[in-house]
Amino acid sequence: MVQKAKILLVDDRPENLLALEAILSALDQTLVRASSGEEALKALLTDDFAVILLDVQMPGMDGFETAAHIKRRERTRDIPIIFLTAINHGPHHTFRGYAAGAVDYISKPFDPWVLRAKVSVFVELYMKNCQLREQAALLRLQLEGSGGQAGVAAKESAGLLAELSARLAAVEEQAEALSKQLDDESADAAAVATAAHLERKLTGLRRALDALEPGAPGGGLPG
């Protein structure tokens, strides 16, 4: 059973955190509060998160600086960041958000449904990644413990690989459908950046799965 995904909410105003919790509670995931950039970085030291909602305007360490720290850490550099801001300073301000590593940039007041939908995409991707990693780890354990039963292990591994590949293919189809929808709707830079992030993640997963195939470098049964 895959555990609930954790979503990090970073804002110095308690009322904003409360509003985010109200909007995202329908996703039925674990919501973690942080009232400053420093507090967010501490939370990221111990927990894994599916996505980070990060306020730009905060006293002390602002959102841009917090994101820079997150992207410098190997453990956290791939966590999607959605910037939230109450001030629209124009294209240059938005570009700074993307340059800091954000996958999306949303101005307040935002549409609750849109925000929830965007967060749900990253939660679903995170959950799929967790499932694939767990199944790949199980496959490796079965291969390593097969001993002299190479034939049986090969059949079992082929079945597991097929299941993993099918599950990943389903996610790839969803991502492809999302990309086509974005093209049809002439999506803005934020949506395009989100889709590109998903594609990079899926490409990495497909590459890792292909490496487990028999005959691949480092794949198949251990020698």
TrEMBL record:
What's an example of a GO molecular-function annotation for this chain? kinase activity
Name the GO terms of the biological process aspect.
phosphorelay signal transduction system
- PANTHER family, alphabetized: RESPONSE REGULATORY DOMAIN-CONTAINING PROTEIN, STRESS RESPONSE REGULATOR PROTEIN 1
Kindly list any coiled-coil regions of this protein: 154-188
What is this protein called in UniProt? Histidine kinase
Which keywords, in A-to-Z order, does the entry hold?
A: Coiled coil, Kinase, Phosphoprotein, Transferase
Response regulatory domain: from which residue to which, for each copy?
A: 6-123
Give residues where 4-aspartylphosphate occurs.
55
